[in-house]
Amino acid sequence: MTDGIKPLEGKLALVTGASKGIGAATAKALAAQGAQVVLVARDVKALELVEDEIHAAGGAATIAPLDLTEPESIARLAHAVSGRWDVLDILVLSAAYLPTLTPVTQIDAKQYNQALNLNVLATQALLAAFDPMLKRSDAARVIGLTSSVGAGPRAYWSAYGSSKAAFDNILSCYAQETEKIGNIRVAIIDPGATRTDMRAKAYPGEDPETVKQPDVVAERLVGLLGEGFTTGHRERIDS
């Protein structure tokens, strides 16, 4: 940082799942480095709290409360963002839904559909909607938060794991498709064991003090933005 200039000054970032956990921590870390951050999630009050924290710290943020699984919601979001800004420099895909852990034979269809809608279909829709803005950036970065169960099947995790396997595949394909036609670089990040509501839901008996806080993941994600990583980069963040 030189003469008070922050590394992400003048950059626009959009973070999904920004109302809590890793998404909120990442949004605050991006703003601290100078980015203008668009905060996307369903919970208006939680988004406003994150926005207030960013503003109190001298950062810039705008909330965009919406349900990414609702028809046309992503198209409306892209229309609103592109109407205000010309370029999107950073897209962080943090929003995700974890269905109840069950055997394959007992998967709840409604919950599975919700996981596929948010973890897979919304991911594709976000990439499609914001691709033009990303391509106008001189160094666009797309970061997707995945899970180890996407690459390594685990008993009782099939509903979530299969949605994350599809998530990984979509991002990897997008990385290959854009590699030679622009300045977009894609990274797929497994945050590892992190103190989030989703983690608490999956491991109700776990002492939260034994796993790292979301800030640790956020710090690494922001650090990665300054590195010349190869598109399609994959990484796990361990404490």
List unreliable stretches of 5+ residues: none
**Overall pLDDT score:** 96
Integer count of domains: 1
Distance N terminus to C terminus?
Answer: 26 Å
Instruction: Please report which band the strand proportion falls in: under 5%, 5-15%, 15-25%, 25-35%, 35-45% or over 45%.
Output: 15-25%
Radius of gyration: 17 Å
**Tally of separate helices:** 8
Order of helices and strands: EHEHEHEHEHHEHHE
The CATH architecture can be given as: 3-Layer(aba) Sandwich
CATH topology: Rossmann fold
Sheet with the most strands: spatial strand order: 3-2-1-4-5-6-7
Kindly report the name of the CATH homologous superfamily. NAD(P)-binding Rossmann-like Domain
- The count of DSSP E runs of length 2 or more, i.e. the number of strands, is 7
Assign the CATH class. Alpha Beta
How would you sum up the global shape? globular
Question: SS-based structural class?
Answer: alpha/beta
Biggest sheet overview: 7 strands, parallel
Percent of residues in helices comes to 40-55%
Can you describe what's shown?
The protein has 239 residues and is α/β, with parallel strands linked by helices. It has one domain (12-236): Rossmann fold (3-Layer(aba) Sandwich). It has helices at 21-32, 44-56, 73-84, 109-135, 148-151, 158-178, 197-202, 214-225, and strands spanning 12-16, 36-41, 60-65, 90-93, 141-145, 185-190, 233-236. Strands 3-2-1-4-5-6-7 form a seven-stranded parallel β-sheet, with helices on both faces. The radius of gyration is 17 Å and the shape is globular. The protein starts with 11 loop residues before the first strand and ends with a strand.
